[in-house]
Structure formats: structure tokens, C-alpha cells
Design brief:
By secondary structure, the chain is an alpha+beta fold. It binds coenzyme A. The site of coenzyme A has 19 residues, from strand 7, helix 4 and helix 5.
Amino acid sequence: MLAGIGRGVGRVYDGAVAELSLPLTTERLTLRRHVETDLDELHRLHAHPDVARYMLWEPWPRGYAIERLGRRLQQSAPANDDDALDLAVLRTADDTYVGEVHLHVVSRQRGCAEVGFAFHPEHHGNGYAREAATAMLGLAFDTLGFRRVIGRCDADNAASAGLMERLGMRREAHLIENEQVKGAWRSEYDYAILAREWAERPV
Ligand SMILES: CC(C)(COP(=O)(O)OP(=O)(O)OC[C@H]1O[C@@H](n2cnc3c(N)ncnc32)[C@H](O)[C@@H]1OP(=O)(O)O)[C@@H](O)C(=O)NCCC(=O)NCCS
């Protein structure tokens, strides 16, 4: 069921995530909810120093991966502020876990969500992140009815900034030394795309 969130600002999905048509499939990938047996791969992904480098956190210890997988298993509807949906991304041909894509509700009232992505370095440079993020943006706009999706990255994270630009997102801000991360003041790029821009993007 889709519920209105305010005059002229679109709509946000208001049901259980189980009602979403998951998994999502793309040319090469399957995006599904996490399951208990993803623990080793989720941990391997986020324990990698290159994956954690520009994140707000250090590489995950095993115990933290267990806690974070537990939260993923609890995820229901990305309907209210701060609700999240983290989909495991598998290469369909051999069922290999290659990474995950994230969406969370920034403001239901404003119809705004944030997208994020983490792929294991073994699988960078194949276009998997772009393919999976495209599917997640499609879910955000076409199924969930968000009107604006944002993405944020460390200003030194060229791979993430490049991905958001390839997705058609617009760099709207360069925040200089706005956040202290792992003991250092870091700068941030803020990206965004509107539903109408997504609909009109060149394919
Ligand atoms: C950010 C991140 C997801 C980007 O991953 P990526 O693999 O570089 O991104 P893409 O899926 O768009 O792949 C792009 C590359 O694949 C290449 N490619 C190869 N085959 C391709 C195909 N069939 N289709 C599209 N691109 C393809 C592109 O040419 C491009 O190469 P280039 O970077 O040399 O120009 C990845 O660097 C990552 O997980 N980083 C660690 C976590 C992180 O920092 N996340 C972001 C936090 S804000």
C-alpha cells in the first residue's frame, strides 16, 4: 500500500518490506534481503581496510558484524525516518556475495532517502556497484515513491563520488572539514537526484 506524505511531495511506501517485490534482479545481479548465512561474507566485506577507509567506522570485528547482520535481519519497511534497507548483492551466475546497497529514510515528510554502497575490492571495477545502485534508486523512486535521494561521501573517496556521478547524481555541496572521523577533520561531498531527474535520465 502506498500512503501519501504531503501535498505535492510524492509518496512513501507504507507497508511491510515483505510486500516489496524482492529480490530485485538486474542483468548480472540479484539484490535480496540478508539471511543468517551471509555472516561470513558481510564480515569479510566490512573487515576489509579498503572498504572501511572512507567510512565513519573502523574495519568491523566479528562481533560487530554479528550485531549488524542481526539488524539487517530485523529490517521491515523503510517507511519511517531512519528506517533502513540493506540488500545483499549477489552475482547471479555463481551466487557470489559481491557487496551490499543501502537505503534509509532521511525524512519521510520531505520524501527524502539516502543511498549507500559497499562492494568487496575483489569485485570493484566491474560496474556491479553501478548496476546494483541503479536498481536501488529505481526501488526508491518507482516503488517507494521518494522524491529526492541523496548520497554523501568523503571528498577523497573518488570511487564513490565517481559512482554517484555515473548514476546521474548532482554534486550539491563540498563541506570543508565538517566532520571529525577517526580523529581527523574530514571534508564531504553531498550528491542528490530528484525523482523527475531520475525519470528523465539518459539511458
Ligand atoms: C564506491 C564503490 C562501491 C565503487 O565501486 P566501483 O566498482 O568502482 O563502481 P562501479 O560499479 O561503477 O564500477 C565502475 C568501474 O567498472 C568498470 N566496468 C567494467 N565493466 C563494466 C560494466 N559492464 N558496466 C559498467 N562499468 C564497468 C567501469 O569502467 C569503471 O572503471 P573505472 O573506475 O576504472 O572507470 C567501491 O569503491 C567501494 O565499495 N568502496 C568501499 C566502500 C565505500 O567507500 N563506499 C562508499 C561510501 S560513501
